[in-house]
């Protein structure tokens, strides 16, 4: 978006007034607009719009959540009012209001934690129950670690219980099927399992996967496939496509369990994984990520990498998430093996990919290159070279108004930012080539991309 901060602020003021309209069509438009302009949000905009964020914008849009990760100075004159309002919303029985209050508390506590409100926040969010995670329809459960909580809370134990007890939402009923959030429930479960496992570089308490939890999830997953597979027969409202996508995410959950079992030598129900694989194959669902884990277990790393590379280079975008999960599992399990040559060739080939595909590749690459394996000096060198060349290509065409190239440029630079953060977290130093690449990215004249470095 080629709009300066002043106009974004004016736009938010107008949206704030319309947010109280209540019209269903206005509601839909506001949500779309917020998704688009949120990439332009920065500390300067947040600082100017504090009243809009904390007090004025309709709670159902949880505007504060769009400023998560942005640092700015909370107004000294108004901070008590902001905290009071956020606590009031957080104690509401209305989930939209409650989530908006939590979103406000997250950025208030990050930017200006006031100890006098610590106990109030604990009581509002946790009440007197330390054995159950607070409820949110907006955030993953690990966000409660970022806010005041009772000292006796064992997050790892609570996460384990959450994974053990949470069921996927089913769409198939005795009389047919219903449209609901089944796909989202599977996605959310997969995202939470990944984030709380050791493969993820997210800074939060982790779950120690044991045989009982692994087999419970695998059994639940198998039964879910059997229960939901009849959806593949329906095409009227996109049921078949949604079910296929849901089963692909299911396969990733199985692969992540398989990955941890290999890494930690867990004696899980491997025959059940084979049953799941056969059932997915019978439904004509790809089992590529499970295939990759089988290669990894057999130490056939080149074959595993070939599967990954073939999917990317044949532009099978539907399976990108699957194969990136598989290759991340390979790096995680075989962290100390020499995999540099294969990855160097892959990174050098990204610039040749059609932009429609490479812009998506960079999204999936971001969590992969956060793995400690990629912090090595020789690895930094070929990653910096790849990103630098892609920036040159994307920037020139983005400046000519090519939207896909602007998207590719944004995703590429965001992957670079995440990569730099991961290198620092390992205690490694950035090599000169990477520093030059960062400097080049920081000098790109685009508001959205400039804001990447403000988060």
Structural features:
single chain, 455 residues, mainly alpha, two-stranded antiparallel ribbon, globular
Given helix and strand content, the structural type is mainly alpha
Strand order of the largest sheet: 1-2
Q: What is the strand content?
A: under 5%
What is the rounded distance between the termini?
A: 17 Å
Share in helix? 55-70%
The total count of helices amounts to: 21
Number of strands: 2
Radius of gyration: 23 Å
Apparent shape: globular
Order of helices and strands: HHHHHHHHEEHHHHHHHHHHHHH
List low-pLDDT spans: none
How much is the average pLDDT? 94
Can you tell me about this structure?
The structure is a single chain. The protein is an all-alpha fold and 455 residues long. 63% of the residues lie in helices and 1% in strands. The protein contains 21 helices and two strands. It has helices at residues 5-18, 24-37, 43-48, 50-56, 79-90, 95-111, 118-126, 155-165, 182-195, 211-228, 239-264, 270-282, 288-297, 301-313, 320-333, 340-349, 355-368, 377-398, 403-426, 432-442, 447-452, and strands at 172-173, 176-177. It has a two-stranded antiparallel sheet. Helix 11 runs parallel beside helix 15. The two termini are 17 Å apart. The mean pLDDT is 94.
